[in-house]
Write the structure tokens for this entry.
Amino acid sequence: MENLLIESSRSYKEGSWFVFKDNDDWFRLRVGSTSGKERFYYNDNLLGEKQQRTKLKTSYEHKNAAGDHFEVVLKASIQFNNAGSICTLTKNGEMIGRVEMLQNKGYMRMFRLILYPAAILVIITFLMMKIGNS
């Protein structure tokens, strides 16, 4: 059985864990760092498993013994200078929890240091090929 965490966290090895607690109900969503595999747990029970690599939003629903309807929604947040994931928990249509895991500025700075020169090289190569074909 997988070791279930009691608080939200992110690491390359363990992936991202989004953890919510409502009274005696525990909701956990684990997203693998490299596989993109999602696992949804209610208390200690695995309720759902998906392989998601391209979707920007996914959701899981569960109704507990008291009849409360819960929904966990995970969305990708992509902006020019920031990227990450936002996970929310709603109970009977009312949001009761939210966890944001955004990339830190150092990571985004390193990403831009790699992306921008690579983009410039691609553009230069494309222009040289166009000029060479003329």
